[in-house]
Amino acid sequence: MNEESTAVDIAPRNPQQALPGDNSTAAPPGAYDIERIRADFPILKQKVYGKPLVYLDNGASAQKPQHVLDAMNEAYETYYSNVHRGVHWTSQASTESFEGSRKKVAAFLNAASENEIIFTRGATEAINLVAASWGGANLNPGDEVILSHMEHHSNIVPWQILRQQKGIELKIVPIDDDGNFLFDEYEKMLSEKTKMVAVTHVSNALGTIVPVEDVIRLAHDKGALVLLDGCQAVPHMAVDVQALDADFYVFSGHKLYGPTGIGVLWGREDLLNAMPPYQSGGDMISSVTFEKTTFKKSPHRFEAGTPAIVEAIGLGAALDYVGAIGLGNISAHEQGVLQYASERLQAVEGLRIIGQAREKASIVSFVIDGIHAHDLGTFVDRAGVAVRVGHHCAQPVMERYGIAATARASFGLYNTRNEVDVLTDALTDAKEFFG
Amino acid sequence: MFDELRDLYQEVILDHGKSPRNFRHLENATCLAHGNNPICGDMLVVYLTLDDDGRITDVAFQGEGCAISMASASMMTEILKGKTRDEAKRLYEGFHDMCTKDGFDLSELGDFDEDAIDRLKMLSGVREFPIRVKCATLAWHTMQAAVDGEQEISTE
Ligand SMILES: Cc1ncc(COP(=O)(O)O)c(C=O)c1O
Question: Which domain covers residue B63, as residue numbers?
Answer without folding.
Answer: 2-154
